[in-house]
Amino acid sequence: MQYTLKQLRYFVAVAEHGSISVASKNLHISQPALSAAISQLESVIGLPLLIRHHARGVSITPAGRQFLSQVRGLLSHAEEIQHAGKDLGTSVSGTLIVGCFTTLAPFFIPQLLRTLEQAHPALSIELAEGALDHVQHQLIMGKSELALVYHIDLDPRLSSKPLTTVIPHAVLPVKHQLSSHSSVPLPALATEPMILLDLPHSRDYFYTLFRDLGIEPNIRYRTQSFELVRGLVGQGHGYSVLNLKPTSNETYDGGQVRYIPIENPTRDLVIALAHTKAITLTRRATAFIDTCEEFFSTL
Prior knowledge:
Layout: H1 5-17, H2 20-27, H3 31-45, E1 50-52, E2 58-60, H4 62-87, E3 94-101, H5 105-119, E4 123-130, H6 132-140, E5 146-150, E6 158-166, E7 169-173, E8 193-197, H7 202-211, E9 218-223, H8 226-234, E10 240-242, E11 257-261, E12 269-276, H9 283-297
Parallel strand pairs: 3-4, 3-5, 8-9
Antiparallel strand pairs: 1-2, 5-12, 6-12, 7-10, 7-11
Helix pairs in contact: 1-2, 1-3, 1-4, 5-9
């Protein structure tokens, strides 16, 4: 006996809802039929995928979690084959789920999607923004196929393709004594109050820039908002260090900041496309990668 795509779709639905009863309502089939399909799938696979809790839904087993990631990839390929058959291989179509680190999204996604629409008008993109850990988890679980991330502390289960490198800049108030310089050494700022972009992994990167030089930043405010960092700097509350540089120096509240490259930085940041090693990329994903490489090469 072999498993069927229908059984795989049923398994994904139950795993996502955490309940056979809820999944059965969404799938418009009876609970006994759904339960039987999952049991048949477990019999074919030879592993327990779900733990049934009386009146408390289901939980997924460790083996089930690994299988779930593979199943999502397989179903994605099955959808692609269906579209390829309709298109006779002449175009890339269907839906591709792409994760993106929150701070990267507004800088690159709008223009990137415009480029993609011109190259592959039949390809639909579903965006899934989040923190780096969340975006990586979505990849590993098979909920997204690609993700635009910083190459920082990537999970070993992921592969990545570098797209571009962004250097660190000191973000200074307009009237700062160093705001007209062509570059700024970090030690010259170390004693001044700093506004830290306090996101997981990002904060460690910023700390490392200082510690590589044997100095510690003087943190005044911490925030997880990129624009609040700029706003606080614009109002003279301190300086910051950021790698992404907006086209405008004006902040949300009308303040102004200056971006000055850090002198001889010990570490840059690499922007990359990540994907799990557990699946073979679909044509949709490879088309997106090709478009990204072309797009970032022009920046």
